[in-house]
Amino acid sequence: MNALWCSNRTHHGIVLDTSSKGFDKGAVTFGSVFLDEDDPKNLFLFYTGAKDISWSHSAIGLATSSDFVRFRKVGSDPVLEGTEGSFCCREALTPAVTKLGNRFYMVFSGRPSVDSFRRLGLAWADDPVGPWNIIAELKKSFYMWENGHIENGPSLVKLDNETVLVFYSNTSSAGLNVVNFLKQLVVRREFCPAWLDVPTFLRRYLIRRIAPLKLKITGPSKASIEVHRFSGNVLKHLNGPKGSWNESLFCPGYFQLRDTHYLVPATSLYSERSLNKRYIGIVSCNSPYFNETEYKIQKLIDGPSEKSAIMPNIKGEILLDSPSPLLSDDSKVLYLYYSVMGHTDNIWKTALTTFKLERVET
């Protein structure tokens, strides 16, 4: 397995900020970059725009760049917004885009109301700028570790011309919300031993974990989509012990360099509630499934020690989320776009850090 060295870094600060009005006045965040091989001169950054800092409504916007650093928003309206009665009419967020054949597909999260759980869905377009058409809801939470809300990371792993992997994570405000637990039992009307996770039920702090979901997409209709859910939480081995920097992992990005696959998750220590330390990690493996037999995980960005370089005027702690990686043409530079927020201002924005890949060893 190749070893990637990327300690030489440059923090470019905020590359996409909120608008003075409109659908993204409250946040410009949880985004993903996409480079069309047929149009490599334009980098697309799909992002989540929130109407206000209370997130009363969110939709998906688009910005483009020709130099990977300076971005311009494509219009003042979202490129995808939930319609009345859709699974994402209140929130549409965390877009991840890929191209299959001549069509573009977007996996994203959504929820229809303030009382509902976030779930995953799929949309398609003939062009990255749209119009984007919502196909269907794909997956709600099922296992206890998912704990009600789930949302995808900013990358889709193309396995072939019809099949992709999407990595998703749980996201809730408490370890196990008993109300969520009871709601899901009512919905299922059955007790599922494979779903029950006693440590999750008893834990008094949140553990966020990630898992893959495999999609086979043969066309832009619900009947043309096959969803394969892996049993349980097959990537729980990536979580470190309580108190470690990778205690919780969520919303990972992905890239491949030569024969090695890399997962780039955001991480946090929710057991230390007063500190809420955030980091970005990098996992290397010889398989896109990041199995337990051969993998290596290390810290990539240390939020507490690098926060002033990332956001020079920050007050309080820094929150990091949704790392979206992109390799330069010569594979010598790693561009990492990610969400940032100062703990005291409550406004999510998008930042960029670049890494010079010093050497790749076998």
Structure, explained:
By secondary structure, the chain is mainly beta. The chain has 3 helices and 22 strands. The protein is globular and about 45 Å long. It has a single domain (3-361), classed as Glycosyl hydrolase domain, family 43 (Tachylectin-2, Chain A). The longest helix is centred in the middle third of the chain and has 11 residues, at 178-188. It has helices at residues 178-188, 198-202, 303-310, and strands at residues 3-5, 8-16, 27-35, 43-50, 58-65, 72-73, 91-100, 103-111, 119-125, 133-139, 150-158, 163-170, 210-217, 225-229, 248-257, 260-268, 278-285, 295-302, 318-327, 333-342, 349-356, 359-361. The strands form 6 sheets. The protein has a 4-stranded antiparallel β-sheet. It has a 4-stranded antiparallel β-sheet with strand order 3-4-5-6, with no helix packed on it. The chain has a 4-stranded antiparallel β-sheet with strand order 7-8-9-10, with no helix packed on it. The model is unreliable at 188-196 (pLDDT under 50).
